[in-house]
Specification:
The protein is α+β, with helices and mostly antiparallel strands. It contains 16 helices and 23 strands. The strands form seven sheets. The protein has a seven-stranded mixed sheet with strand order 17-18-16-15-21-22-23. Strands 3-2-1-5-14-13 form a six-stranded mixed sheet, with helices on both faces. It is globular and about 65 Å long. This is Glycerol kinase.
Length: about 500
């Protein structure tokens, strides 16, 4: 009998494979980083072939470590960095170009032209998104216009598109030998090409970007009893494991945090921060800079929607301290360094490396460190970096309360940065509400496993999943209201200093 469910968690900086039991407990994992390719300022790419090779490697190692075979897995789920765009040749399996990552800003002129031509409002109404460099539609257009031969191949049906879930599902199910070309509504809703109400590709939106419909994958439910196919990739996953779950990473974390009721919210702290508020089957349009997105669709049930606040740079700002500035040797050291000071010493760091995402949506912004004096040290910068993670989250929470009328009474958190206890205390202080971390902090992989397990009956209902959730740690606010508002006022002033830095036609 199959007693476990596996999950591929393909993220921005690494790929991991995790195995869970019926109680949602981690049984095994393995994780490998992949190269960040930075050809020029504002460009961020990944090698899709490297990502696929890493996926096979982490699955092989995790399965071997746990002493399991493919037959021990009831199902497999996939979750992924969203918006990152891959275009490949369905005949050879070779990508035409590197994957263009969600952080990449080369499509700023495409986004600006959409607004200038009055198409932005159509995209907002149909897709729930503003025209922005963040989303996939402009990235596909860039590849079609700039990589020789791709436009012609797309018209013939040879060049196909997918976010990284689609790329992995196609390879997992055989690749050139009958690979399945599919995605789910959570990923499709991040392209600017899908109508949120019909959950189908929209011809008018496709025309805005010049994308042929035949390039696009079939959209299937996130938890899919009809399956996405079975594994045919050789090695540990060669035994035809049912592929039954597919969710974009932030929606997967929402499922992993069992936020199944309208009004429940979670915040994932990874490369960026992503706060999702479940709005139920109601499609809530944002008037305050948030995204309307699909939260999940289980089987034949109606889709559940969410409001999302997407923040481009949070955990990756800590990486920047390590890799570019060299003031820390590892992410964990940022906490120890920041604890050397009682406050930020007047320093604010706005890490707008890829412009500002929610709630500002300013591609002209760039990173800034303000308020420096000779008094300040690297410890103040480390603390300002942690505070930037928390202040950006407050920006989004404020917008979410304005849009939905829901005032948070607790924020559920997950992701790698939640291991930084000073950062989580700062988050409670800056928000003024308790912050709660679950026992299983890697809820992204867990959510993908839940989606797959529900589809095949490994878990009978969402009630089973709710019973699996347990709190590990809670942080209560300690700042006075006066200190909280004074700090936030300084942050808002610092944000203004980042604007109008890049000229966007």
């Amino acid at each position: 009998m199959a007693d476990y469910v596996g999950a591929v968690d393909q993220g921005t900086t690494s790929t991991r494979f995790m195995i869970f039991d019926r109680s949602g407990n981690e049984v095994a994992r393995h994780q490998l980083e992949h190269q960040q390719i930075l050809p020029q300022a504002g460009w961020v790419e990944h090698n899709p072939t490297e990502i696929w090779e890493r996926t096979r490697a982490v699955a092989e190692t995790a399965m071997r470590t746990a002493g399991l075979r493919a037959s021990d897995l009831a199902a497999l789920g996939v979750t992924n960095q969203r918006e990152t765009t891959v275009v490949w040749d369905r005949r050879t399996g070779r990508p035409y170009y590197n994957a263009i990552v969600w952080q990449d800003t080369r499509t700023d002129r495409i986004a600006a032209a959409l607004e200038r031509e009055g198409k932005g409002e159509v995209i907002r109404r149909k897709a729930g998104l503003p025209p922005a460099t963040y989303f996939s539609g402009g990235k596909i257009q860039w590849i079609l216009e700039n990589v020789p031969g791709v436009r012609e191949a797309a018209e013939r049906g040879d060049a196909v598109f997918g976010t990284t879930d689609t790329w992995l599902l196609w390879n997992l199910t055989g690749g050139v030998d009958g690979g399945v070309h599919v995605t789910d509504p959570t990923n499709a809703s991040r392209t600017m090409l899908m109508d949120l109400e019909t959950l189908d590709w929209d011809d008018e939106l496709l025309s805005f970007f010049g994308v042929p419909r035949r390039m696009l994958p079939e959209i299937r439910p996130s938890s899919n009893p009809g399956l996405y196919g079975v594994t045919r990739a050789g090695g540990s996953l060669g035994g035809e494991v049912p592929l039954a779950g597919d969710l974009g990473d932030q929606q997967a974390a929402t499922v992993g945090q069992v936020c199944f009721e309208p009004g429940m919210a979670k915040n994932t702290y990874g490369t960026g921060n992503f706060l999702l508020l479940n709005t139920g089957t109601e499609l809530v349009r944002s008037g305050h800079g948030l995204l309307t997105t699909v939260c999940y669709q289980f089987g034949s049930a109606k889709p559940v929607y969410a409001l999302e606040g997407s923040i481009a740079v949070t955990g990756s700002a800590v990486q920047w301290l390590r890799d570019q500035l060299g003031i820390i040797s590892g992410a964990a050291q940022s906490e120890a360094l920041a604890r050397q000071v009682e406050d930020n010493g007047g320093v604010y760091f706005v890490p707008a490396f890829s412009g500002l995402f929610a709630p500002y949506w300013r591609s002209d912004a760039r990173g800034a460190i303000v308020g420096l004096s000779r008094y300040n040290t690297n410890a103040h910068l480390a603390r300002a970096t942690l505070e930037a993670i928390c202040y950006q989250t407050r920006d989004v929470v404020t917008a979410m309360e304005q849009d939905s009328g829901v005032v948070l009474d607790v924020l559920r958190v997950d992701g790698g940065v939640t291991a930084n206890e000073l950062c989580m205390q700062l988050q409670a202080d800056i928000l003024g509400v308790p912050v709660s971390r679950p026992v299983v902090a890697e809820t992204t992989a867990l959510g993908a496993a839940y989606a797959a397990g529900l589809a095949v009956g490994f878990w009978k209902s969402t009630g089973d999943l709710r019973r699996n959730w347990h709190e590990d740690r809670r942080w209560e606010p300690t700042w006075s209201e006066e200190r909280r508002e004074r700090g936030y006022a300084g942050w808002r002033k610092a944000v203004q200093r980042t604007l109008d830095w890049v000229d966007v036609d």
